[in-house]
Amino acid sequence: MSEIVDRVKRAMKGPSPVQSANGFTVPDWAPGFLFFLAVTFTLCFVARLGLDTSVRLFTAGEIATQDVAADQTMQIEDMEATARRREQVTESQPPVFDVSPLPYEALAKNVEDILTSVRAAAPGEDLEKLRWQIAENLNTEIGGDIIEVWRQDDFRNLLQKDVLPWLKENYEPGVVSNSSVFMPYKSGILLRDLPSKMETLRVDTHDIKDTKQIKDDLEHLLKVSLNKPFRLRKAVYTLVYPLIAPSMTLNQDTTQVRKAEIARAVEPLYYIIKKGEIIVRQGERVGPIQQLKLQALYSHRKGPYNLLRATGLFGMCLMFLAVLYVSLERAGIKRIRSTDWVFLGVVLLIFGMLAKMADVVTLPGGGGLPEATRSIYFAFSLPMAGAAGILALFFSKRLCIFISLILSFLAANMVYAGIGVFCYYFVGSMIYIYLIKRSETRSQLFKSVLPLLAALYVMWVSVNLMDLNDPSVVGAGLAFVTLSAFLSLLAVVGIAPIMELIFGYTSRFRLMELLNLEQPLLQELMVKAPGTYHHSLIVSNMVEAGARNIGANPLLAKVAALYHDIGKLKNPHYFIENISCKENRHNKLAPSMSALILISHVKKGIELAREHRLGEALTDLIGQHHGTTLIAYFYHKAKELAEAKGDDPIREADYRYPGPKPQSKEAGLILLADAIEASSRTLVDPTPSRIKGHIQNIVRKIYTEGELDESQLTLKDLTLLTDTFHRILTGIFHQRIEYPSAKTTEKNGKHREEPACALDPKAAEHAA
Description:
two-stranded antiparallel sheet, 12 strands, disordered C terminus
């Protein structure tokens, strides 16, 4: 079984970077990323891949021979209700009446022309001929006495000073042909002044005069206000009345255009059909509305595929990945390894296909459950939070959130759901990520299902009130939500260990197991290399405290520090912490061989880590804990020997660790702590000030050599680490009280004894 797992792991790692003929190097992460993209596109295609479900059609008046349920959630336009709504809106639109100054201007001009022609005509046959012509034009009888009045100066003055100004004033608001034209328009009218194109809404139209009111008011003016005689009044009526015309007219074209625009702006009214809703039951008579719904379902039935929508979904997923790229620090998305992308793709594929089951399988009716609840049974039972929990065991919180966003988006589209179901999946995933990140023991992991369950309950009620609008399904849906929470826990407990075994990941719980000092590898280190074991314990305490201060992973850093020097088990007596003062095997070796032995402990540590299945995370940290630093002592010793013998210059690369340089904060942290703790042993008088100066020198040296360039450690982090390491090492090298030799003295008749711990070395040791 172990051989099979190892082969799967090697296959997951993929080939090493390949350089093409033109010098282009394929990145290590590219194969896994392409696999992830392929999985994402496949799920986008599957999300819009539906079975061609046949919808039985019945016409209005028929008796349904079988139950017909909606196979998808959709909305269809209610044509009749929409038409009624548009008719109501258009009826409330006020008509447009044009107000023109031309009727009054024409009246005044005609009056002036008639009076001028009458005064210019000679009495006799010409005047009589003119009278008949004017009578014909005005379509009224004109007597000879009226013509005589028109020729008088008093009549002309009356028109110019009183009648025409009064008519102009009354024409300005507008004159309509008949006031009854306003009766259909209870909501008012729009008056549009033609010269200025300005429009005014008139709700009350009672004060708008028609031509009859103008004539009546003119008669009142002449008879009552001006007290003119009947003969003069009759002459005015005969001349003016035929010329009075309406200045306000209904603009039918403009009114109809505006009503059409308003009608188009009215949103259609829809019937909302929920997936699983029974449209018609067997034995029922089909009504017009049911026929409309059946026709809509038939015309929108799921086809074999919808490539355009699948492409749109994939485009959205690419945008999510683009946001992930710019949000990650420094190297961005490239920091995610090829194996990680394969793992993310596998999780996405498993839970994405699980979501597709909700579209294929429908809970049968019965049990007193509402139709809406039956249709979303699988949708709200899916353990999407479990996928987020699995990711949270191995990846950073930010990466987990973005992958959960993509999965929630795809799953909501798989079940043809709306924003409510998407929020249910995504919020539940984020909450479970937070809970898993805070769980440090397996008991805490099992307890995390309770707050997850409470959060999913709240989301279920919120989605129900926001989307389903059916309070009756709240109680029935709680059972489905409960199932989702426990399935999520089961996914984390059941699937995560399998993924951890196949992909070589190290979960938080595996790290807690490795932290136990009773682990066989640590016990062997304690027996064979006690100095290295003690050094590793101190370094682990240093990196744990440092990791907490700079926001790194303290558990991963501490466990990696415990195991970072396990490679020294192969040749423990060649390392200074395990060498006694009387024997130093390096004295018999050439500097190059000594350097080779020191360098080999990194490679042997990687081999032991893989042999004992410590996981890729710890294996990588072991391989990076020296970076590419120089083994200065043996390099300078070899350089001196070569110069003394006159040999070729020594290659500095032969005395450097092979690397790689630290690729994470945890790796950089271990490199610093390892170098500082080991070199601090050389301090003769380790006072607090000397310890701090020593730490600063080591940090400055490692930083200037570029060993931390790829570790994501900032200058602020280095300052915090300097203070943290100083506090810990000061506690280790604290000053002791020097106990005098044991003796008994008497002074002034009193007996005094020295502390008993000075007499007994064991007692002194325990006192320390």
